[in-house]
Amino acid sequence: MKFTSAVALVACVAQTSAFAPVANQRQGSSLNAQILGRTTGQSPLDPAVIARYKDLPFPSDSILAEYVWVDADGNTRSKTRTLPASKGDSVESLPKWNFDGSSTGQAPGDDSEVILRPCRIFKDPFRPRNDDLDNILVMCDTWTPAGEPLATNARAVAMEAFEGKDDEEIWFGMEQEFTLFNLDERTPLGWPEGGMPTRPQGPYYCSVGPENSFGRDITDAMYKACLYAGIEISGTNGEVMPGQQEYQVGPCIGIDAGDQLMMSRYILQRVCEDFQVFCTLHPKPIVDGDWNGAGMHTNVSTKSMREEGGLEDIKKAIYKLGEKHSEHIAVYGEGNELRLTGLHETASIDQFCFGVANRGASIRIGRDTWDEGKGYFEDRRPSSNADPYVVTGKIMKTIMGPEAPEITPMDKAEA
């Protein structure tokens, strides 16, 4: 998919925590429940038993609020509380909460309380209701009791980059790639256990058919859950490596891009929990063989870039990003050196370049943008496990900075 440069920005055609199922197995009980195996792709828990509790009505004057935050490793955590229904009307009416930061790597044991400040509300797709109320997911950031943002609070840093720049109307479209594994955490979906596919890359991208597409039901479930939640998910597709998938979130304005992308990761992991598959955001989960890695390509457009003559503003932004290439690489995700090799639709991690319609460049300008003279650009460097708050905030800070020397576009033959 492409951004449309005149009217809408649509994201192009992505180290989360591992689930910990029990390894041993036993015979089913009278409830048809079993201990979950490590190679299954489906939960054997009896859906009739689960439905017995899910079908219970919620109190008419209360809602369930799932507070979600980012831990020290960049993974999402959450816990639930019951609130009066009126509290769910706005972020401002939601109470702060706290958690044990010593258990998430965010505080010492002798002073472990971390404060959760609500930032964004989404509908909860995992606890739907049949009345006029919605249970909610609440994206939060993390603070000390003294009112200081934690060192791991990347959202607070990003907010500083966006403050006072509302007139820029910066849009972000983010392409989240991820890889699905069996619960052995070694075998991607569609791969033989202990081996590799007999066919190379090629037939799996945007594919159909049982021999090509692996994990479609999971991606579709995540897609619908995100739509229900109110996330601006704009598409999905199967990716180049079998077992790898992608979805796109955007266009989102400013800090909301980070909020939506991070909540979509939470929803993705919850869906994988239901399907009993392991999902990783590692940028190079398979290092042996000729297989693509996983990224979080980030598409960017300011108001001036979308207006007549905006291509010049796009070029100026790219020059600034090139001048600070090493700074961006340092915060664009762990393990990215395994992915940015100059092969498999990537540029070398050591060299900055940009080009038109060139997926072997650090920054790509779409063909439509180049021909129309306005639109957006795509930063292809962020890894799939990069923090969206860090990426969007860093891009904003850089392109709003001082002018940088011109860079010659990469020739297509050099890709």
Shape: globular
Order of helices and strands: HEEEEEHEHEEHEEHHHHEEHEH
Helix percent band:
10-25%
Strand content: 15-25%
* Strand-pairing-aware structural class: alpha+beta
> Stretches where pLDDT falls below 50 for ≥5 residues?
1-36
Oligomer: single chain
Q: Report the total helices.
A: 10
Distance between the termini: 21 Å
**Largest sheet features:** 8 strands, mixed
Tell how many strands the DSSP assignment holds. 13
Q: On the 0-100 scale, what is the average pLDDT? A: 90
Output the radius of gyration: 22 Å
Describe this structure in words.
The protein has ten helices and 13 strands. With 415 residues, the protein is an alpha+beta fold. Strands 6, 7, 8, 9, 10, 11, 12 and 13 form an eight-stranded mixed beta sheet that branches. Strands 2-1-5-4-3 form a five-stranded mixed beta sheet. α2 (154-162) packs parallel to α10, α3 (216-229) packs across α4 (256-275) and α4 runs antiparallel to α10 (388-399). The two termini are 21 Å apart. Mean pLDDT is 90; it is low at 1-36.
